[in-house]
Amino acid sequence: MSANHDPARGESGNVLPFRRSEDPGGRSEGEWAIYDELASEDAFTGLAGHPWFEDDLRGAARRRRGDENPWVAVVLAQGLDEIDARLGPAAAGKATRAVAVRLRDSLRAGDKIARLGRDTFGLIVDAPYAGEALTALERIEKSVRRLVEENPRWEGLHLSVGLAPLWSSDPAAALTHATEALERARAHGGAAVVMTTASRPG
User: Fold this and answer.
1) pLDDT reported for residue 1
2) What's the predicted TM-score (pTM) here?
3) What does the pLDDT read at residue 40?
4) What angle do CA 70, 193, 145 make, to 5 degrees?
5) Domain 45-195's class?
6) Using an 8 Å Cβ cutoff, are 100 and 117 in contact?
7) C-alpha span between 99 and 123 (Å, rounded)
8) Torsion, CA 57, CA 107, CA 160, CA 92, rounded to 10
9) Cα dist. 103→77, 115, 166, 182 in Å?
């Protein structure tokens, strides 16, 4: 079985794709209860899933205080493919879950986390200014570095991060900006935090 496949998530590794308002078929309340449980949690890591992360983004944007913005980060765990190639899919799966635990345990009160893809995580950092958000992300990155020190066979595993302010006018755009910043981090070799260069919408 490939490391791209999570048993509870299907071959694509994505959470269930729609919500009650987008239901194409007339599910019963019992079926919806099962669906809601699956869609709200990534069964492979125990973290929240992508649809509920989008809800958290909108909620955080509504709660922003004056000129102080929370921040959204897209975090890529790089090196999992190499672990898969060297040690096999079971080791890559174990490393993925270990990274998820380190990310979750490094959060502060008010922060949120979700698994967005096989090796990608979303964070909402409840920090009013960039410096505080960067400090929070540095603590997370150090935690994963310690994880690799404790598991030398996972050498090469590291985090790359894209960061953007969560403007209340368009929280979805903030996620896009964070993803674009992540791509710049990857283009520079990874193992870095890159902040968006996008300007605040008028």
Assistant:
1) 33
2) 0.76
3) 55
4) 110
5) alpha beta
6) no
7) 13
8) -110
9) 11, 10, 20, 17
Q: Count the residues in the chain.
A: 202
Residue 64 backbone class (left: φ over 0; alpha: ψ -120 to 50; beta: rest): beta
What gap in Å lies between CA 27 and CA 9, rounded to an integer? 20
Torsion of CA 18, 19, 22, 27, to 10 degrees: 110
Q: Which residues contact 28 (CB under 8 A, 6 or more apart)?
A: none
What is the distance between the alpha carbons of residues 157 and 79, in angstroms, rounded to a whole number?
Answer: 4
How is the chain split into domains, by residue range?
A: 45-195
Q: Are 71 and 166 in contact (CB under 8 A)?
A: yes
Q: At what angle do helices 50-62 and 29-40 cross, to 10 degrees?
A: 80
pLDDT on residue 45: 84
All residue ranges of the chain with pLDDT < 70 are 1-41, 64-68, 168-169, 197-202
